[in-house]
Design goal:
- With about 260 residues, the protein is an alpha/beta fold.
- The protein has a single domain, classed as NAD(P)-binding Rossmann-like Domain (Rossmann fold).
- It has a 7-stranded parallel β-sheet with strand order 3-2-1-4-5-6-7, sandwiched between helices.
- β1, α1 and β2 form a beta-alpha-beta unit.
- α1 crosses α8, α3 runs parallel beside α4 and α4 runs parallel beside α5.
- It binds nicotinamide-adenine-dinucleotide.
- The site of nicotinamide-adenine-dinucleotide has 27 residues, from α1, β5 and α6.
């Protein structure tokens, strides 16, 4: 297929949340690029810039900008640049989460006010802030906003603790945003991914055990990859998904259906 015939040719996508080549956001970016989308990236902090910039350049990204999603000024500057370069946005990928390391082990009840605030701000509120900034660039033609959740939003997973609460808030944000933005044909969805070995996952105590056990126990007996998440993210951005919004979609080899 020539470049002009690809399904996402002419579409623009802002990817927020690549840390390195293992990131779920990178799996998504690669797939959107493969389907013809034009991409821009944000990164957080100079250390990650060294990782993200070469990756972004390897797939011809239009821009790579610094953005701390806890900072409204940063968000506003990034979207000014999106407007200046593209004048519209079709796809926004939010693949960001953070909690203090001490809040991802032990007892949830020990989470302090500041740890709770920080986890909810960066991992859930940031979707609202980014969606609000994206809306004016999507409203003339519709768009697709995607975020990443995990089953710890719905069920208690050892050590996931405050991040489970943040993901529950994130999933509720998806529903409320979908209703606010639906009349403008802007769709908002979450992908609830099975465990994948990434930088963020390494911060959760016992993650390696979860990864090992889940691969053995899920119905398909197979762990998922960032590329699998990318495949589904791409589908959610295609016309075939034009009536899909407000959902939390599992890409986890069926793990979430198990009672034990
Ligand atoms: P990752 O470490 O590659 O990505 C996390 C990203 O969050 C990083 O790029 C980091 O820079 C960014 N981030 C954190 N705080 C930020 C801030 N203040 N401003 C801007 N960016 C910030 O790990 P990942 O596993 O790819 O995580 C991406 C998303 O997928 C997260 O929401 C995570 O909870 C979710 N998720 C991951 C898994 C898994 O097993 N890896 C499973 C389900 C859901």
């Amino acid at each position: 297929m020539s470049q002009t015939n690809l399904p996402l040719t002419g579409r623009t996508a802002l990817i927020v949340g690549v840390a390195n080549e293992r990131s779920l956001a990178w799996g998504v970016a690669k797939k959107l690029h493969e389907l013809g989308a034009t991409l821009g990236f944000t990164f957080q902090g100079e250390v990650l810039e060294k990782r993200v910039r070469p990756l972004a350049e390897s797939i011809g990204a239009t821009f790579v900008e610094s953005c701390d999603v806890a900072n409204d000024q940063d968000i506003s500057e990034v979207f000014s640049k999106v407007k200046a370069r593209w004048d519209k946005l079709d796809i926004l990928v939010h693949s960001v989460a953070f909690a203090n390391r001490e809040d991802l082990e032990g007892r949830f009840v020990d989470t302090n006010r500041e740890g709770f605030r920080k986890a909810l701000d960066i991992s859930a509120y940031s979707l609202v802030a980014l969606a609000k900034a994206a809306e004016p660039l999507m409203e003339s033609h519709g768009g697709s906003i995607l975020t990443m959740s995990y089953h710890g939003a719905q069920k208690v997973i050892p050590n996931y603790n405050v991040m489970g609460v943040a993901k529950a808030a994130l999933e509720a944000c998806v529903r409320y945003l979908a209703v606010d933005m639906g009349p403008k044909k802007i769709r908002v969805n979450a992908i609830s991914a099975g465990p994948v070995k990434t930088l963020a996952a390494a911060g959760i105590r016992g993650f390696r055990d979860i990864l090992g056990q889940m691969g053995e126990k899920n119905p398909l007996r197979e762990n998922i990859s960032a590329e699998d998440v990318g495949e589904f993210a791409a589908f959610l951005s295609l016309p075939g998904a034009k009536h899909i919004t407000g959902g939390v979609h599992y890409v986890d080899s069926g793990l979430n259906i198990l009672g034990l």
